[in-house]
Amino acid sequence: MLVDTHGRVATDLRVSLTDKCNLRCTYCMPEEGLKWLAKPDLLSDDEVVRLVRIAVTRLGVRDVRFTGGEPLLRPGLVGIVQRCAALTPRPRMSLTTNGIGLGRTAGALKAAGLDRVNVSLDTLRRDVFTTLTRRDRLQDVLDGLAAAREAGLTPVKVNTVLMPGLNDDEAPELLAWAVENGYELRFIEQMPLDAQHGWTRDGMITAQDILRSLGTRFGLTAESGEQRGSAPAERWIVDGGPHRVGVIASVTRPFCSACDRTRLTADGQIRDCLFAREETDLRTALRADASDETIAARWKRAMWGKKAGSGLDDPLFLQPDRPMSAIGG
Predict the structure, then answer these.
(1) Is the domain covering 2-327 a CATH 3.20.20.70 domain?
(2) What is the reported pTM?
(3) Which of 53, 146, 148, 162 has its CB surrounded by the most CB atoms within 10 Å?
């Protein structure tokens, strides 16, 4: 198993399939985009599936989430999902996406074995969406969400980042919309993972801000801690239930002590933390025909040295060199 020196066990694998994205969200990357990974540097479909197989059959991973960049841009996505669904034991599989393209792929992904999706959506206002993402694609995202719900990729979770002066007044409106449509809304504090390194603690909307705003319209009752487990979101019951809303407070309420994640980048590097500044190369071992045992042992060593926390509360904290789009959500 993927155990670290603090006794945590990684059972959740985040697999980035590409660093490319078809949006240009202001808190993620510059308008002109980034220099994408060269195709030879990316793991092939076979290499992705092999590493997932090693994680599931040898290292105790039970949950696999496919991320990006934007994973729907990966041509072989449906095939990768289908092959991973055939593993024994079968992992639970989810996808984090911006929702563009989900309208035409939700059914195929469900048939391939995907269990559910998380869709990033920060606003319901077309003008604000265009400003935040630098693309006029709001309706495509809404259509993708509806397609996911109809295909049975449930619970459909919606991830929202609030930005000062743009959408910070939308929390109650977004929650009302999510309740009406049967989606589970989760607000995420903006994290220092932007390519521009422009994040500041003073400029972020905190969990406390979000809950205060929601409280102007809804009655919220905190779920008990036992129900949270290693989930990153603290959840609140909305108006007595059955609907819930979550807040992922990575900055102001870190949950590192219960972290159960290991991360694989699109170019085959293992990261033991979202904010890690070091990586462990598995791609070279793969392409040198290393055995499954050798790769598993290298993965174990990478996770053994995981730090106790993300370091966000350290005045000397430094952002990772890679932005979120290259790490995977």
Answers:
(1) yes
(2) 0.92
(3) 148
